[in-house]
Amino acid sequence: xxxxxxxxxxxxxxxxxxxxxxxxxxxxxxxxxxxxxxxxxxxxxxxxxxxxxxxxxxxxxxxxxxxxxxxxxxxxxxxxxxxxxxxxxxxxxxxxxxxxxxxxxxxxxxxxxxxxxxxxxxxxxxxxxxxxxxxxxxxxxxxxxxxxxxxxxxxxxxxxxxxxxxxxxxxxxxxxxxxxxxxxxxxxxxxxx
Length: 193
Ligand code: ITT
Description:
This protein is α/β, with parallel strands linked by helices. Helices cover 32% and strands 22% of the residues.
């Protein structure tokens, strides 16, 4: 049977599609099934991933995979964190969201650290209600101004430790192999296969 990708974010659909490709699993997106976007009422990445996966499995009767993720800036106490999508506003404009991160950091003064990390929680939910969740992360630094248009979201302002290119500049295959999403996916595969 098919696996529902319980996300409405095209960047995630692309990346999760690439991660799943070697397994030959047939997928269908939440958008294609006309599934609604559930309200993210959780207070952790894992809770929000579970709520999205559970709703998609319940409504479709198919196994589902959901992703809740975000950028955590150490000097901002972990913000935007689970609010990463919401910082872009109704228009989902990530130039605005990145500017907001930059401005908040500037308010902290010139000595504020630029350390940041991305987190990704992946939840796999079966139609019988069984659910498993895996969390991954990647550590890096914030860059300014943003550079590159190959990724999505906050990618243009994130440089992984040891790299000089931003995630927005990296070859997508490379990003897919080192990202927080790849880290979570490796744990999922290790547990289930
Ligand atoms: P769904 O809930 O439908 O999956 P969403 O975009 O609302 O889509 P989230 O609530 O998990 O998803 O928000 C996470 C945000 O964090 C996302 O919109 C991106 O802007 C950002 N983000 C997550 N992973 C990222 C990545 O690999 N690169 C850049 N930004 C990322």
